[in-house]
Specification:
This protein is an all-alpha fold. The protein has a domain of 45 residues. It is built from 3 helices and no strands. It is rod-shaped. It starts with a helix and ends in a 19-residue tail after the last helix. The model has no long low-confidence stretch (mean pLDDT 86).
Length: 109
């Protein structure tokens, strides 16, 4: 009988620390592996960096196009860009021009 009573006392003494350790383990695991944990945060940072690089490329391309469009506006039109655009639209070339062909995936600017 003393053995059973001693075992019950030890179990009662061990239950609160085990519950506390379980709670700490649960929150610790979620802090690292959860939806808003350290691993997910690192992944979001990588995605953010990739999106920022993509944004920088898009802004650079937009700026290049804005410069080209600005050259065609206003009182003074850039003759070189106008000539280039007219030849492109008419699909014509000067016999003295050197023509360099680009593939469909090659970037011109």
């Amino acid at each position: 009988m003393a053995f059973v009573r001693e075992a019950k006392r030890k179990i009662r003494a061990a239950v609160p620390p085990m519950l506390f350790l379980s709670l700490v383990a649960y929150f610790g695991w979620n802090a690292v592996q959860g939806d808003r944990g350290l691993v997910a945060s690192a992944q979001r940072q990588e995605v953010l960096k990739a999106r920022q690089q993509e944004l920088a490329r898009a802004e650079t391309e937009r700026d290049a196009w804005e410069r080209r469009v600005a050259a065609l506006r206003g009182n003074r039109i850039d003759r070189d860009i106008l000539d280039e655009r007219a030849r492109e639209m008419l699909n014509r070339a000067n016999p003295d021009d050197v023509i360099v062909l680009f593939g469909p995936k090659d970037r011109l600017f």
